[in-house]
Amino acid sequence: MAEYHITMRFSSWFSSFVALSVALAPYAPSALADGLPDLGENSQLTLTPQMERRVGEAIMRDIRLSDPSYDDDPEVTEYLNVLGNRLVSNSQNARQDFEFFLVRDSTLNAFAMPGGFIGVHSGTIVTAQSESELAAVLAHEIAHVTQHHIARMASNQGKLSMAVLAAMVLAMISRNSQVGSAAATIGQASAITAQIGFTREFEREADRIGFQTLEKSGFDVLAMPAFFLRMQNAGRLYENNAPAYLRSHPVTSERIADAQNRIQGLPYRQTPSSLDFQLVRAKLLAAQSTPQDALTQMQADLREKKFSNGIAAHYGLAAALLRAREPARAAAELAPLLHSTEHPMLAGLDARIKQASGDAKGALGVLKQALQRYPNNRALNYGYIETLQQLGQNRDAASLLDEQIKNYPRDARLYSMRAKGYSSLGKRLLQHQAQAEVYVLQGSLPAAIEQLQLAQKSSDGDFYQLSSVDARLHDLTRQLAQEMKEKREKK
Q1: pLDDT at 68
Q2: Which one-letter DSSP state was computed for residue 272?
Q3: CA-to-CA distance for 236 and 231, rounded, in angstroms?
């Protein structure tokens, strides 16, 4: 994540964390430092998968809350998780949940964090020339997680403390020189310098296991050496300013040769890229650079026939036209696709175009019809609920939200929409109660407690609603007190 607006945020967090860990100069703790679990101070420990997950969750909470490059686009996120979990299901030693997420950044980068959290830069998806190439990147990152490489690197330092683990994670995902300086403060400079990237052994292991996962999942294994060559060429172009992925995962001639040797004797398997991949890639291409530059590029690609899938190329142009605030032209570009192809992303774009044209009722009709075919599609459900609320149909929206929250109880976006709906209905207690759950899921207990206190003070709740608020407030207050006690004991 070197170029991914992470430098100041992680440097600040690391300094704060060092202060908590070794009682050096006082720093104001960041949200992430507050959420990190206590693994023990300078103790001989083996990181369990549960510990790794807790560390990963703490880092993810901070990314979701404060990193502007984190993008929860539901269409891209759903695609990444479907593709990623297909690979996970064919990966050895995958005994944990995985979460794949998008980072809106044009550089070529992907990274694995402890606990199964894998970030993918939009530039990586755009750079991949096939779905198999993207799958090769994800398979490699999955292997880093299943083989517990970051935890093993931290453990190899001898005494495993949170400071060592934090430094390892930061070194792997930020490549930030300030991390090295912070590590030196606590005498860990040599360890971090030595382990600034994955070791050759770990890279070979991730390549080997990732290759096996790619093959078992039915993808084209030729994609792995092909993408390595593309990365190597990119590295030559970047010279000393290469993206983090090329520096922390250096592509050597040995790695390329190993990948090429693995495919020797294997039968050729032609694996076409899915329409999902093509549409997601086109969507991200249309979102790059300025709206006008993106539109010019999409038009040129179509004119010069520089595309591998015509449906995706025209979809991308329609998306670029919408971004350039030309909804009428976007609708005309999309119309032939809607007559020839059914896909939830096409329906979603159709609805957004109608919204931009001021036709909220038309958008609602499109989404309602699409949901009959794709009832579990998250993006379509989000759009349908938001359009119902826009049209003032808050009771219908509330009913659908109840159903969605039963299916996805940890979806903060659903609770946020529920809070908005209750606000429109003038139900203040329920509004604050729903907003409290948003903050709980984001990892901010003080903010959640404040919302529940506001709910208590509202005058529109009945006995049962107030009892529910009181019980939840008692639970969260006790939970926060326990966390504060643990932090005091650490000092």
Answers
A1: 87
A2: P
A3: 9
Cα gap 28→227, rounded to integer Å: 43
DSSP for 429-449 reads HHHHHHHHHHHHHHT-HHHHH
| Cα torsion through 52, 56, 57, 63, rounded to 10 | 170
CA pair distance 432, 454, nearest whole angstrom: 7
Residues designated catalytic: 141, 207
Q: What is the mean pLDDT of residues 275-296?
A: 97
* Cα–Cα distance, 459 to 462 (Å, whole number): 9
* Any domain includes 310: no
How many residues does the structure list for the chain? 491
Query: What residue numbers bound the domain in which 21 lies?
Result: 7-262
In a domain, 350, yes or no: no
For the chain, the domain total comes to 1
* Strands 70-71 and 99-103, bridge-based pairing: antiparallel
- In 209-312, which ranges are E strands? none
> pLDDT class for 280, splitting at 50, 70, 90?
very high
- Please check whether residue 116 is in contact with residue 53, taking contact to mean a CB–CB distance below 8 angstroms: yes
- Residue 156 to residues 45, 55, 189, 193, 432: CA-CA distances in angstroms? 11, 18, 15, 14, 47
- pLDDT tens-digit map of 60-102: 888 888 788 999 999 999 999 999 999 999 998 777 899 999 9
Q: How far apart are CA 237 and CA 90, in angstroms?
A: 35
- From the list 213, 163, 223, 232, the residue with the least C-alpha distance to 18 is 163
